Amino acid sequence: MLQHYFDNFFLRFSTESFTTDWQRLEVGIVTGCTISVVLFATAMNLIVKSAEKTSRGPKMASGSIQPPTRAFMDDMTITDKLYVEGRWMLQDIGEIITWARMRFKPAKSRSMVLRKGAIQDSARYRVCDQLIPTVKEKHVKCLGKWYRGSLSDKESIADTESQLKDWLNQVEKCGLPGKFKAWIYQHGILPRLLWPLLINSVPSSTVEAMERTINGFLRRWFGVPKSFTSLGLYCTKSKLQLPLKALTEEYKVTKARQVIMLRDSADEKVREAGVKILTGRKWKAEEAVKDAESRLRHSDIVGTVTEGRLGLGCVTRSQWSKAGQKERRTLIQSEVRRTEEEHRQTKAAALGKQGRWLNWEGVQQRKLTWGDIWKTEGDRLSYLLRSVYDVLPSPVNLKTWGLSDNPECKHCGRPANLEHILSSCKTFLKDGRYTWRHDRVLASIAEPLDHARRFQKNKEKGVLFIPFVKEGQTG
Ligand SMILES: [Zn+2]
């Protein structure tokens, strides 16, 4: 049936001006055909497996032996312990591939011989009598990651950093209002940054430096001063929350996910490989995952607790011990986020002025969505942010910043901080200036009421009788 199915494949091509004749397809995979893909993968698997016999494959640091050949569709990676073994294997595979009427492209392939951690230039590989270029000669990019002769990600990281700056500068110049630029960061730049951060071994301190660059731009776009704390931009438990995501938080979540993905993989070989996720000295992904797990186990022991003023049982949590593989992954990720938020809270507690909102009792949290931000004008948004974190140019702040000499209120002589100006100046209270707007509204309501009351006065006074209509009478 398969033979019959693949026997008569015809295709033709159309350009703008003409269409070719029907051509018979002899080699290749037809787009949209489900069978040929499966067949191709099966055949490739057979070829790969048949070549494995000659070699034992590399031994990892964890002690496990990995298969010498790894393939994804038509891409193949061959790793061997000895240079000679590699050559035998290439020869074998070359023969099988030629038998299968396929062809290697040596120019598109790369080879690398390592001895004591350094690349050997003298040892070269050939396939079908053609030389394979080494990684040193020609760099190669696979799934967005560059493989270079230096065997490190330093250049890739530097590229990512400069690209981030380019992107931010381009957004800066686009002439849109600041809130739109912030939206572009959140939905355009951030997701594109996360992939290079995942595939390269980027130290956490580098990511922090990148975040500082981003913070500078975000501050400008939201119209807040340079002294505005970055906690104000990303805090998720403060009194005013913005819909922005911090790069470091996303980076940590991504790395934690990578750790779990490799450690709990369904593939035995991946699980055993013991791949180390390098994230620098400051923060370690493996430790963060372990921390998150022990925290989750601990909260299992503690059980459900109340949160805020809600009653017991209003907030439910999923049990770590009963969670499945997938649920555990999401639980760990949210736990990593929670840890980040806790760090932010401790930082906020150390800030005398901009962390004062921690002591505000009875103030409702406000969560700004993108929808809210669209509706708010730029100046108002800036005012809102600056008033919550007390960085408005009040006389006291101006004195602190060294921009004026007199921190006192012009009306009552007390220090005029934000609270004083907004609600507690004695002179203003006496004059009724704080309640002026409120009183105006009340006055406009009171006026018609008063009018109605006076109108009622003019009515006749005394008892009013309702004449009773007897049976047979007319009213
Ligand atoms: Zn005053």
> Residue ranges: pLDDT <50 for 5 or more in a row?
none
The protein's oligomeric status is single chain
Specify the overall morphology.
elongated
Structural class: mainly alpha
* Strand segment tally: 12
Report the sheet-strand fraction.
Answer: 5-15%
Query: What's the helix count?
Result: 17
Q: What is the radius of gyration?
A: 35 Å
Q: Distance N terminus to C terminus? A: 102 Å
Number of domains as seen in the coordinates = 3
Q: Strands of the largest sheet, in order across it?
A: 1-2
Order of helices and strands: HEEHEEHEEEEEEHHHHEHHHHEHHHHHH
Average predicted confidence as pLDDT: 87
Query: Any ligands, ions or cofactors bound here, and which?
Result: zinc ion
Largest sheet, in brief, is: 2 strands, antiparallel
Q: Kindly state the percentage of residues in helix.
A: 40-55%
Question: Which helices and strands appear, and what pairs or packs with what?
Answer:
Elements (H helix, E strand, L loop, with lengths): L1 H6 L2 E2 L11 E2 L9 H19 L16 E4 L2 E4 L4 H17 L14 E2 L2 E2 L6 E2 L2 E2 L8 E3 L2 E3 L6 H19 L5 H22 L4 H19 L8 H4 L5 E2 L5 H17 L4 H6 L11 H18 L22 H26 L15 E2 L2 H6 L2 H11 L6 H6 L17 H7 L1 H6 L4 H22 L18
Parallel strand pairs: 11-12
Antiparallel strand pairs: 1-2, 3-4, 5-6, 7-8, 9-10
Helix pairs in contact: 2-3, 4-5, 4-6, 5-6, 5-8, 6-8, 8-10, 8-11, 10-11
The site of zinc ion (ZN) has 8 residues, from loops.
